[in-house]
Design goal:
Elements: H1 9-18, H2 38-54, H3 59-62, E1 64-66, H4 68-72, E2 82-85, H5 89-101, E3 107-109, H6 123-131, E4 133-134, H7 137-152, H8 154-175, H9 180-183, H10 194-206, H11 215-237, H12 246-256, H13 261-287, H14 290-297, H15 304-313, H16 317-330, H17 340-351, H18 357-365, H19 368-372, H20 393-409, H21 418-422, H22 426-438, H23 450-465, H24 469-480, H25 484-491, H26 497-505, H27 510-527, H28 534-548, H29 550-564, H30 573-577, H31 579-584, H32 587-599, E5 607-610, E6 616-622, H33 629-639, E7 643-652, E8 656-664, H34 669-677, E9 693-699, E10 703-711, H35 716-726, E11 731-739, E12 742-750, H36 755-765
Parallel strand pairs: 2-3
Antiparallel strand pairs: 1-2, 1-4, 5-6, 6-8, 7-8, 7-11, 9-10, 10-12, 11-12
Length: 772
Amino acid sequence: MAAKTYLTSEQLVQAQEILNPPLMTPDGDVRQVFCFSSQSFSLWLGAKLEESLKSNPLWRDTHPIMLGSWARGELSPKSDIDILFCGDEDKVREFTNQLQEKGLKLRYRMPANPEDWTEGVEAFDVLALLKAKPLTPEGARKLFEQQKRIWSKKNMWRKTLLKAVKEERKARENRFDSITNYLEPNLKYGPGGLRDLEQGLQIYEMFAERFTNPGHALNVLNYYRDYLLSLRQKLHLEGHSDILSSSAQFDLGKWMGFKSHKDFMRSLQRGLSRVNFYSDWIIAVADAPEEVLKKIERSEFYKPSDLFSALEKNSSVLMQKKVREELDHLLPATEIKKMGKLRGQELDQVLSVKAKDEFLYSIFRSRLIDKLVPEITRLVGYVQHDQYHRYTADSHIMQACREIKRVFAKPKELGPLQAVAKSLNPYDWQVLSWTCMYHDLAKGIDSGDHSEAGTAIVTRDFKAFGFKKKFTDDVNWMVKNHLELSQAAFRKNSKDPRVWQELRDKGVEGDALKRLAIFTAVDIRATNPEAWNEWKGRLLAELVENLESKKAQDYFTFRTLKAKKHLHISEEIYEELGPVLVDSLSMNDLVEDLKKAEDSSESLPPKIMQTKQGDTWVRMHQKRDRKGILADYVGQFYSLGLGIRHASIHTLPKVGVYDWFQVSTQKNLKTLEQLLKSSQLKEKEIPQVQFDQIQLMSAHDKEWVISFRGPDQAGLLAAAAKALSDLNVSIKSARVHTWGRQVDDIFMIKAEGDPQLLIKALHDRFTIRATP
């Protein structure tokens, strides 16, 4: 496309007055071509170009012949100016140089062989010759001779041209399969654009004898030829390219007479879809064997189910066109509500993950889907301008229904989620396929959240379909919650119990969790394939894993027991207790002990519990906290010869000091319990220990976190606790971790004074060199 218009500033002002908005707001059902000024404007542009050419005295000797959009009467202010010259070569060179110097950019050529203009050119250049228009009598004579030569070999050329059109369309389909193609359509090269339209009309002219009833298709193409051309011309006048950007859509919608840009884009997208369909159909008719066309033409449909059977056997655009012609006859709008069970049965076959993708696609493209789910007609052409949604709403639903089939057939495409997909049963896949169809049907309804509103549509339709309550409830739940996992996986911490509880409160568990995880992946892939990646798959898989983990299940049990036993402490205590303690002890025993500590007005005696795995845990409780109490505990354990493997240390509101220690001991548990209760225990002196590191992990206004790391050795925790106690530090909580031969003791302490002075004092006490 030319970067600049060939019009002068004065002509641009004139052009704005000549190109008028439609006489009536465009309506795809009432196609009034006369409403547009696009053809007259194109003629005016052509006349201005002729004036520019004829202002040079050399023009007549060059015998210019118009090609492309100029010849077809489809000029826009930024159209390429395509010309073939069949005059004197030297004069052509001089003529074009002079035009270029004046700023008129041309795309021109001269025949390589004056006797045969098709020699050495592309098939599309030959096609252009059939539509070319000469500017001189001599040019007209020569062009007529070449056109006769082409038509004398009509069969050869039209096969060549048909093949070229098919290849170009395929390449363009791949090239323009991008997000801008839907949110910001390319009016010339995108699907359903002017190039599709032009090819459809040209192929029809070349194969006209093959068509028995093309009237409606031609009517649609001719109408949208003026519609799209008018838009393209206006875009160019406003300084834009062929891409209808989101910013330009507002002004163009207003200029075309629509109430809002959404109405405008819905109308335009419907038009692009129609052009794409009918141009595809024309090319398919031209390409199909005669016997195939006759067989489809002879197809007869007596009942609605015949339409489905026909498309299941033959999903081609040829059969889609035949089915379109029968829709209103066999499925009249007045009878749709009475056909609930039939619609439900047929939809179940279409949506089945085992049904062929081509069959599903043909149901949508033939518009048979409009009869099965009338709600979808409101979404045709509905565009969401967020640069994330790649397709119009109706296309997104179709893509989701197709995508669920793909992941069913190839779970590996889901990456880290493939194990979840493989665990699903046939009922799960049925729920998923129907969710894909219904999850966004309430888009565009102004009243509230579309997920919530969608459940009313499910309830209404499934009742008409005669579906069971459980199935209706399961699909309803999926529609209502279809966005929940994406928000939790990509915007929240999937390891946070609060996130788990939010999801559990909405019913995200068990089979529902697995279905929702797979649907979330499918929805992303159907919204914009480029938005799905390994990272998102991993986050979703991790969320499922976290929600199904023992830790999560223990957390849910903790909450249930907490409510049942009327425990009043914060739920955050579950996280603070630490995974080692929570994984080791019975949740029922732990909550019951916490309740006793909360209800007791006095300190509870030490308690010893042994797990099924043989681990020994000791609980120490003091109703009132004091400085140095942790040092006393660990000193007492050291004196008893107990090795501390892990510890969960806390001071809780209404509970007091509540500490659990996992210890290693050879003593009899009853004897140990008596010793812990004894007030006459003689404490041993804590030995000298060596820490590798003592670090300030974080320092806030109310709390500091300090880490003591070193090789596992007797008295390590006792030494750390004693050191903090001697420095008059108030310990709020602590975590003790032992793995292999390494220990990491982490203390959360009350912020008092300068944390760096505390670290220096600890370094001096244990003779640790400060790290540079």
